[in-house]
Design a protein that fits this description.
two-stranded parallel sheet, about 20% helix, 4 strands, 2 helices, single chain, about 100 residues, globular, alpha+beta, two-stranded antiparallel ribbon
Length: about 100
Protein backbone atom coordinates (compact mmCIF):
# COMPACT_ATOMS: atom_id res chain seq x y z
CA UNK A 1 0.00 0.00 0.00
CA UNK A 2 1.32 3.41 -0.86
CA UNK A 3 -0.07 6.00 1.54
CA UNK A 4 1.35 9.05 3.24
CA UNK A 5 0.35 7.72 6.65
CA UNK A 6 0.06 4.40 8.50
CA UNK A 7 -3.09 2.39 7.71
CA UNK A 8 -4.79 3.19 11.03
CA UNK A 9 -4.73 6.88 10.06
CA UNK A 10 -6.51 6.42 6.75
CA UNK A 11 -10.03 7.84 6.78
CA UNK A 12 -13.47 6.35 6.25
CA UNK A 13 -16.20 8.99 6.02
CA UNK A 14 -13.83 11.61 7.47
CA UNK A 15 -12.92 9.52 10.56
CA UNK A 16 -9.61 7.80 11.15
CA UNK A 17 -9.84 4.00 11.06
CA UNK A 18 -8.18 4.06 14.48
CA UNK A 19 -10.99 6.22 15.92
CA UNK A 20 -13.68 3.99 14.45
CA UNK A 21 -12.04 0.86 15.88
CA UNK A 22 -11.38 2.26 19.37
CA UNK A 23 -14.83 3.83 19.71
CA UNK A 24 -16.48 0.51 18.81
CA UNK A 25 -14.33 -1.42 21.27
CA UNK A 26 -14.93 1.02 24.09
CA UNK A 27 -18.68 1.12 23.47
CA UNK A 28 -18.85 -2.49 24.63
CA UNK A 29 -19.72 -2.33 28.33
CA UNK A 30 -17.06 -4.84 29.39
CA UNK A 31 -14.23 -2.49 28.40
CA UNK A 32 -13.39 0.28 30.84
CA UNK A 33 -10.36 1.52 28.93
CA UNK A 34 -7.46 0.64 26.71
CA UNK A 35 -3.75 1.11 26.17
CA UNK A 36 -2.53 2.18 22.73
CA UNK A 37 1.17 1.68 21.95
CA UNK A 38 2.52 4.43 19.70
CA UNK A 39 5.65 4.89 17.67
CA UNK A 40 7.69 7.74 19.21
CA UNK A 41 7.56 9.58 15.88
CA UNK A 42 3.77 9.27 15.52
CA UNK A 43 2.57 12.81 14.83
CA UNK A 44 -0.97 11.80 13.79
CA UNK A 45 -2.18 10.64 17.23
CA UNK A 46 -2.77 14.14 18.71
CA UNK A 47 -5.21 14.89 15.86
CA UNK A 48 -7.46 11.90 16.60
CA UNK A 49 -10.75 11.76 18.49
CA UNK A 50 -9.26 8.96 20.55
CA UNK A 51 -6.47 11.14 21.92
CA UNK A 52 -9.16 13.18 23.70
CA UNK A 53 -10.87 10.16 25.31
CA UNK A 54 -9.86 9.85 28.96
CA UNK A 55 -10.42 6.08 28.86
CA UNK A 56 -7.54 5.71 26.40
CA UNK A 57 -3.93 5.67 27.57
CA UNK A 58 -0.81 5.47 25.44
CA UNK A 59 2.63 4.01 25.80
CA UNK A 60 5.70 3.77 23.60
CA UNK A 61 5.44 0.84 21.21
CA UNK A 62 8.18 -1.44 19.97
CA UNK A 63 9.89 -2.23 16.70
CA UNK A 64 7.62 -5.17 15.87
CA UNK A 65 3.91 -5.67 16.57
CA UNK A 66 4.70 -8.25 19.28
CA UNK A 67 7.01 -5.74 20.99
CA UNK A 68 4.19 -3.19 21.02
CA UNK A 69 1.74 -5.68 22.54
CA UNK A 70 4.27 -6.49 25.26
CA UNK A 71 4.89 -2.77 25.89
CA UNK A 72 1.15 -2.19 26.30
CA UNK A 73 0.79 -5.12 28.71
CA UNK A 74 3.74 -3.86 30.74
CA UNK A 75 2.24 -0.37 30.81
CA UNK A 76 -0.93 -1.87 32.30
CA UNK A 77 1.00 -3.50 35.16
CA UNK A 78 -0.27 -2.11 38.43
CA UNK A 79 -3.56 -1.01 36.85
CA UNK A 80 -5.09 -4.33 35.85
CA UNK A 81 -6.28 -6.70 38.54
CA UNK A 82 -5.51 -10.40 38.78
CA UNK A 83 -8.96 -11.28 37.41
CA UNK A 84 -8.99 -8.66 34.64
CA UNK A 85 -8.81 -9.73 31.02
CA UNK A 86 -6.94 -8.04 28.23
CA UNK A 87 -7.67 -8.16 24.53
CA UNK A 88 -5.29 -7.26 21.70
CA UNK A 89 -6.47 -6.01 18.35
CA UNK A 90 -4.99 -4.21 15.40
CA UNK A 91 -6.01 -0.56 15.43
CA UNK A 92 -6.67 -0.67 11.73
CA UNK A 93 -9.52 -3.19 11.92
CA UNK A 94 -12.77 -1.18 11.89
CA UNK A 95 -15.05 -4.18 11.34
CA UNK A 96 -15.50 -4.89 15.06
CA UNK A 97 -19.24 -5.29 15.45
CA UNK A 98 -21.18 -3.79 18.33
CA UNK A 99 -22.60 -6.54 20.53
CA UNK A 100 -26.37 -6.52 20.93
Amino acid sequence: MQAECPKQYLRIDSRFILDITLSRVLNVAQFSGCMVPLNPSDHWWPTTESSQDERIQTCTGGTERADSVLAALRALAGQAGDDDWSWCTMRRAPAFMKMI
